[in-house]
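To close the chapter, one final illustration. This time we ask the reader to focus less on the individual chains and more on the assembly as a whole: which components sit near each other, and how the overall shape emerges from the parts.
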Amino acid sequence: MFDSVLIANRGEIALRVARTCKEMGIRTIAVYSSADEGSPVVRLADEAVRIGPPQAKRSYLYAPAVLQAAHQTGAQAIHPGYGFLSEDADFAEMCRAEGLTFIGPPPEILAMLGDKAEALRVLSGAGIDVLPGTHRPIATAGEAADAAAGIGFPIIVKALAGGGGRGMAIARRPAELADAYAQARTSAQAVFGDERVYLERYVESARHVEVQVLAGTDGQVLHLGARDCSVQRRRQKLIEETPVPGLPERDANRLCEQVVAAARAIGYVGAGTFEFLLDDAGRFHCIEVNCRIQVEHPVTEMITGVDLVREQLNVAATGGPGITQQDIRLNGAAIECRINAEDPARGFLPSPGTIEALTLPAGPFTRVDEYVRPGMSIPPFYDPLLAKVSVWAPDRDQAIARMERALAECVVSGPGIRTTTGFLTSVLAHPLFRDGKHTTALIENLSVA
Amino acid sequence: MFDSVLIANRGEIALRVARTCKEMGIRTIAVYSSADEGSPVVRLADEAVRIGPPQAKRSYLYAPAVLQAAHQTGAQAIHPGYGFLSEDADFAEMCRAEGLTFIGPPPEILAMLGDKAEALRVLSGAGIDVLPGTHRPIATAGEAADAAAGIGFPIIVKALAGGGGRGMAIARRPAELADAYAQARTSAQAVFGDERVYLERYVESARHVEVQVLAGTDGQVLHLGARDCSVQRRRQKLIEETPVPGLPERDANRLCEQVVAAARAIGYVGAGTFEFLLDDAGRFHCIEVNCRIQVEHPVTEMITGVDLVREQLNVAATGGPGITQQDIRLNGAAIECRINAEDPARGFLPSPGTIEALTLPAGPFTRVDEYVRPGMSIPPFYDPLLAKVSVWAPDRDQAIARMERALAECVVSGPGIRTTTGFLTSVLAHPLFRDGKHTTALIENLSVA
Amino acid sequence: MADHGDLIESVYRHAVGFANEVGGPIRRLKVTVGEVSLEAEWPAPGDPGPPVPHLADLNGHHAPAPRPEPPTAAVAVVQSPMVGTFYRSPEPGAPPFVKEGDMVTPGQQVGIVEAMKMMNPVQAATAGRVTKALAEDAGAVEYGQALFALEEG
Amino acid sequence: MADHGDLIESVYRHAVGFANEVGGPIRRLKVTVGEVSLEAEWPAPGDPGPPVPHLADLNGHHAPAPRPEPPTAAVAVVQSPMVGTFYRSPEPGAPPFVKEGDMVTPGQQVGIVEAMKMMNPVQAATAGRVTKALAEDAGAVEYGQALFALEEG
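The assembled structure is written out below.
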């Protein structure tokens, strides 16, 4: 195992990773921007290095500063968390060149799966169902029209470099295609600096389902069950749960086994998540692979008892996870809610500020992953996630009741601070959610109503 | 199920019970003394009634005030928590007379098991091994000397009404017996107002092991495994864990099955704990039965997934638990540490005061049961327990490492406040504890060293 | 000789219990059992001057933030001695023990709190004029709840 | 007789416990167990005199030491523009870019921060006199770390 790991991230995930490192006796090095001086990981880590100003581009996204901090502190490995440099093939390559272990898939896998169109081509080749689409960049509006005829409407035009629900536009009819194509290109260029786009069938109403895998360098691939993340706004997840409500165990197992086979076929390494849309007809269509630990990993940890960060470290240090598929039993139900500093009444406008009063839930079968502390200022520069509240129960109904109880305990207040807590409570109470019949359109419909 | 439950307790257990009631959709009524205005259960409960002044005798121990509050609020049942009225047969009888459900064993069981000597006689008759002893009050020093010859030294003289390590004296040789007898009587009279004492073989060096049961009125008795609570100071537990380190699963199962048979034989009802000393020779001797939920119940909940308070409510409302023995799988290892407002450097002197800074641990597989909040004053009138930190892991070593990590996150400070956190950390690091070879003498030895 | 632990504990318990139980301004308290003795003295009632620091405060136990004082000085409150149901009259339909504007004397009965089917008289502790009845007749009251406001004198 | 340690501890603990539990301004407190006795007396209300020894202090709680004030006005600091290794001289053995007492002008190079094998010049942002070099030559520096203190002007 590593003697020391540098955590190239911030917020709750930096603390989450530091916790497991401490438990494993690994020296932890935190890096932080000057906006994150007060973050608890700075105090809890064995060492902390200020690597840049608040802007992520000059700190958490700035590979030379992160690598420099790793060298100065003698770190052996870098855990990139999620977001920032976590899926950056160039960064993984730089780590390799510098003799540092990047805790994640090798650069080749990151490059292949980071190109959305190529990823779908490869996955399709590995036996995973993907949506009809071009799976390659489309250079002109005319080419788009030709391709669309073969795919069928509605169609979504997506940035090749896309992610996070940005750089995309929908055409419901052939007449809308030219506009959507132009709009997606403009937006892709603006957001990602890469105007290339591709076409794909758009699924109007779907569940968002994903499979967690853990793969060693020796071809051993495990799955840890499926999660449902259909409660989203603008493609950003708010509530995650496992198992997938309404999905028979047999179907979930079949999906997981397909994913394991595909991950093995493409040579995947590390923790990863295969994301799917589940359409009305009960078909799963893979939309992407997340090559990192995910925000929603705690629900999987709660039903399996597996510490996924520990297993990431095991894979990176020894080539394989410390467990086998036989060790993994899926037990009960778990739900995670994201407490964001956002104002749901104002279109989820971020609401940074200073936290004066803070009480996070506790008690039976309740887990909190946080980085906030009373008196702390929430910087406006980053993701608004303050804390994740996760609960476990023998079944989904009890888990929902437990989450309602837990959210009722939350107090996060201070000048300027608004949170998603109340909104999450109303989602939990929604009949479609209760019945497990909601789709990714749930919140849009709620907001309209 | 009940519509409403009054929680006749305070501190962390009142909040613990309220949490499960809320999850079950039960209206909760808190009662509180004027010293506990600021306790979070007062805010979180659906109703709260101030029942008396700070002194427990005039509030939490004062049955008429509790019953009056139950009537005024229309409560159907009373959950007594632990301590206070929880094992009071008279109170359980008054509840019955008043048409209220006492959530615990019936008064007859409480009376029988509350008389320590009779309890041991009954348990012995039900096939449970108990220490050699008189199991009845001894009226004279001469009678004591006769009985002692049959029991064998060392001998402990114990108050019939005893508990909490008070009202007892040890005689290591026959020459010491008369003094020990006289002293125990004086002390029993002073502390409990009842001078009756009995004799029992004293076990010098032992592990403290206990079995959690859950019994219905229909004769259904389940066990939820064994716990080890050998880390004690003056017979008050500080660290609890499950499974029992070093005890082969087969032996633990045999003990649990014996307890289940005995509980059935004596007609036990509700949640209860059978406490044992495990001597050097590997023999278990039952010392008492706790007829209530215990402080250390979370470790059992963590390895079984069973909400014990929920099952207490199930038994009280429907006659039986909502689960069967087949539903209970013992999975992994769990440890609980008690964060007390005490100064370990000064003989665990209580250190009430105002909490200014408060951070309790969070993160993977970490549970907190608390009632403290920043800015809250800890009243000097009650138990010094502020919070319980519990962790789960696949095995004991990982659980210890996780607990060390969790304790390192704890910040509980303010004028006058001292806590057991640092002391607990040093116990976790002790080689005897690490090896699971410690006895109830561990802390005494630590303090001497 | 064996340990004194239980005896100390007992003397201690009884001293605390007594001091709390009897309430009121104790001047001197001494509990002795054999070799164990506990003795405490409080300042004389008439002692003026700055308040002596509370032992509790010295030990870091701060009094809760000062609560807003009731309106003006010389105002007293009759509190409920227990949780129960408060009655302003001796029996249904009868006139109340006291009404607003009445003068009361120390020890005068001003109401009843019924708890567990027992009728407990509520008495004024000080003399004064009843300025306001603060609790509803036949309503639930908590321990310490204000029942009447008095203007002392 | 066995050691007194536990007994003293116990007497002490019970004295503090008693004072805490009964509250109120105690005047005098004495706890005796056999040969051990603890006696405390607090000043009468009105007594000025030296501060009463806080029980809180006895209990081990000390106020944190006051922090040293930062130096006063008209002081500027040259900060490191990035994380890296700081060099005061253009090359090993060469004289430093600036030393204490030197005047610097805005934009003047005062050091180098090496990061990822790149040499990055550090420049003064304001004019002033170098009063102190704050970072070690060839030592690790963080982003924003103070390298030199300047007296502005």
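DSSP finds 15 helices and 22 strands in chain A. Chain A has three domains: 4-103, 132-201, 207-445. With these observations in hand, you are ready for the problems at the end of the chapter.
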